[in-house]
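User: Reviewer 2 asked us to show a designed sequence for the structure in our supplementary figure. I'm pasting the structure tokens here. Could you produce the per-position amino acids so we can include them in the response letter?
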């Protein structure tokens, strides 16, 4: 049973989601303020956090900022439908994914499962190499760990999945559709900028090459390419 933390001031919604999730194999605990959400998210008791952006006193974006300062626990945002500003801000701060409100409990659970598949060791991963390396980058998919120039690279679960997909095809262009399917676990939707925002964050963490170019190149109209060296 996967323990999920729900942070939302709508008690009727969290009650309904908790009941639905229980039927789907999740144990959901709900808190209703940003302060409580921050404390619980950092407690180590939860596998994933569902965080509403619109919270009283402290916004969900600020709660996410505080969580990411201390933890890489997966975080899914609940955002107002059509509010791209909050959505992009959340992704830039390290949210793993988002679901617009209102959305069906089924969609929320499907997104949660997609994230958990990425972060939990895959029992079928025996055929994959224990270490995936290209140039100065080393990835341990089973442990979800990454090193860059022999130093630990701090990545969110989604950033790790995107970088792993690019590393498996280093030197080749990987389409956004392939990245969305294999790293995010869902088809790419029109006008969805989440991959672009995550890639931008990874670029910042890798830093520039000696020639000042980014290690991850955009190929207009096609996708992204991780330079293999």
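Assistant: Here is a per-position design you can include in the supplement:
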């Amino acid at each position: 049973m996967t323990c999920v933390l729900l942070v939302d001031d709508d008690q009727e919604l969290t009650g309904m989601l908790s009941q639905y999730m229980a039927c789907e194999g999740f144990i959901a605990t709900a808190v209703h303020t940003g302060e409580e959400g921050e404390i619980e998210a950092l407690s180590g008791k939860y596998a994933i956090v569902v965080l509403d952006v619109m919270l009283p006193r402290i916004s969900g974006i600020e709660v996410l900022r505080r969580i990411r300062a201390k933890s890489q626990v997966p975080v899914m945002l609940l955002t107002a439908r059509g509010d791209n500003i909050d959505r992009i801000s959340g992704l830039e701060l390290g949210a793993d994914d988002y679901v617009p409100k209102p959305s069906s409990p089924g969609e929320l659970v499907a997104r949660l499962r997609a994230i958990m598949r990425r972060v939990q060791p895959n029992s079928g991963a025996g055929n994959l190499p224990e270490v995936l390396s290209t140039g100065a980058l080393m990835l341990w998919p089973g442990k979800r760990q990454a090193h860059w120039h022999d130093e630990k690279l701090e990545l969110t679960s989604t950033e790790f999945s995107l970088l792993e997909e690019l590393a498996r095809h280093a030197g080749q262009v990987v389409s956004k559709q392939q990245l969305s399917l294999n790293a995010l676990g869902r088809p790419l939707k029109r006008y969805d900028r989440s991959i672009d925002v995550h890639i931008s964050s990874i670029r910042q963490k890798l830093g520039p090459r000696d020639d000042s170019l980014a290690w991850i190149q955009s190929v207009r109209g096609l996708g992204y390419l991780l330079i293999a060296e």
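For the response letter, you might also mention the following. Helices lie at 11-23, 34-41, 60-68, 84-92, 105-119, 157-168, 176-184, 194-206. The chain has eight helices and twelve strands.
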